[in-house]
Design a protein that fits this description.
Length: about 200
C-alpha cells in the first residue's frame, strides 16, 4: 500500500470513529427527546384547572317571624319578616342569608363544595350556617343559600353588632365578610319598638 493510500485510509477510519462516538454522547441523544418532553410539560401546565384562592361572600340580614311584637305583626305590607333590614330590637330574631361565590367559575358553592361556613360574634363565640332551600315551597324553593338565625337576648346591649363571617371551600379557597365601618350602616341592636311607630 502506498503512503498516500495509508493516509487516506487512516483519515476515513478516524472520521468513522468520530461519528460513532458522537452518536453515543448525551448531547445528540438529548436534543430530539427533550423537545417533546418540554412540550408535554407545557401542555400539562396549560391544561391544569385554575382554582380560586379567595371566595366572595354576599348576602343580607332579615327579621324572622319569631319575636315580633303585636305592633310589628300588624304593620302589614311589606311584612317585617323576610325583609332586608339592619336594625333589630332586643328579643327579635336576626337571620343572616349568605352565599359564597367562586370568582373563577362564577358559581355559588353548595354544601358539597363548602368545608365550613361560620359566624363569629363580638364575644368570640362562633356557630355554623346551614345550607338549604328558601322561599317558594318545600318541594320547589325559590333559592338555595346559607342561613343562620340568632335571637337577640332581651338584655343584650344596644348599639352596633359587628360579626365576622368566614367560609372555606373543600378545594382550599377562603373568604371573609366584615361589617361596614360606617356607624349608620352597621347592623344595630335597638330597644323594642324604637324602630317602628306604635299604633
Amino acid at each position: 500500500m502506498t503512503l498516500r493510500a495509508r493516509v487516506l485510509a487512516s483519515c476515513v477510519s478516524a472520521l468513522m470513529l468520530a461519528a460513532a462516538c458522537g452518536s453515543g454522547t448525551g448531547d445528540s441523544a438529548a436534543t430530539p427527546t427533550s423537545a417533546p418532553s418540554q412540550t408535554k410539560a407545557v401542555a400539562a401546565t396549560q391544561a391544569a384547572p385554575v382554582l380560586a384562592k379567595t371566595l366572595v361572600i354576599l348576602g343580607d340580614t332579615i327579621r324572622s317571624q319569631q319575636g315580633l311584637n303585636d305592633v310589628e305583626k300588624n304593620i302589614g305590607a311589606p311584612e317585617i319578616h323576610c325583609t332586608q333590614q339592619s336594625r333589630f330590637p332586643q328579643g327579635g330574631r336576626i337571620v343572616w342569608r349568605m352565599k359564597a361565590l367562586d370568582p373563577v367559575t362564577g358559581s355559588y358553592l353548595d354544601d358539597k363544595a363548602v368545608a365550613s361556613f361560620t359566624i363569629t360574634f363580638p364575644d368570640g363565640k362562633s356557630d355554623k350556617f346551614a345550607y338549604g332551600g328558601h322561599g317558594g315551597t318545600k318541594e320547589a324553593p325559590q333559592d338555595f343559600l346559607w342561613a343562620y338565625g340568632w335571637t337577640v337576648p332581651a338584655d343584650y346591649p344596644t348599639g352596633a353588632l359587628n360579626v365576622k363571617i368566614d367560609v372555606k371551600s373543600i378545594a382550599g379557597a377562603s373568604g371573609s365578610f366584615d361589617a361596614f365601618r360606617v356607624a349608620a350602616a352597621q347592623l344595630t341592636i335597638t330597644k323594642p319598638g324604637q324602630d317602628y311607630p306604635r299604633q
